[in-house]
């Protein structure tokens, strides 16, 4: 009986938004990012193709803040979710002034979309 209770508790602990993340919906959420970020070339912010799995602040052709370069972050679901909630809270001293995405579903969808950018 205990094994079932533990299994159910573990499943319940998985965020629902992450289980149902939708890259197509994330592409729509990405419209909020387009003022600064593009795919394929740098804009005000660095390009985001290949961001998933990349070390933060590591593109050679973009001038990142020292804070981000020294952050030690590698972009994955957890680090992107935390970052997208408020970059300046996550890495004080970053140049990214975005207030953050408050909706967990929007963040999960955006992350799912970012994974598709190669």
How is this structure best summarized?
With 118 residues, the protein is an all-alpha fold. The protein has a single domain (2-116), classed as Cytochrome Bc1 Complex, Chain D, domain 2 (Orthogonal Bundle), CATH 1.10.760.10.
CATH-defined topology: Cytochrome Bc1 Complex, Chain D, domain 2
Per DSSP, what share of the residues sits in E-state strands of 2 or more residues? under 5%
**What number of structural domains do the residues give?**
1
Give the termini distance in whole angstroms: 45 Å
The top level CATH class name: Mainly Alpha
Instruction: Give the helices and strands as they follow along the chain.
Output: HHHHHHH
Uncertain segments: 4-14
User: So, the CATH homologous superfamily?
Assistant: Cytochrome c-like domain
Q: What's the overall geometry?
A: globular
Number of H- or I-type helical stretches? 7
Number of strand segments: 0
Report on the biggest sheet.
Answer: none
**CATH architecture descriptor text:** Orthogonal Bundle
Class of secondary structure makeup: mainly alpha
Averaged pLDDT: 88
Rg for CA atoms: 16 Å
């Amino acid at each position: 009986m205990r094994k079932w209770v533990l299994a159910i508790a573990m499943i319940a602990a998985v965020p629902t938004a992450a289980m149902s993340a939708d890259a197509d919906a994330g592409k729509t959420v990405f419209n909020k990012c387009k003022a600064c970020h593009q795919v394929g070339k740098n804009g005000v912010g660095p390009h985001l193709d290949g961001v998933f799995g990349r070390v933060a602040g590591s593109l050679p052709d973009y001038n990142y803040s020292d804070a981000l370069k020294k952050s030690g972050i590698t972009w994955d679901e957890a680090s992107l979710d935390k970052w997208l909630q408020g970059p300046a809270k996550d890495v004080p001293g970053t140049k990214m002034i975005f207030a953050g995405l408050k909706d967990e579903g929007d963040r999960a969808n955006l992350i799912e979309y970012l994974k598709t950018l190669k």
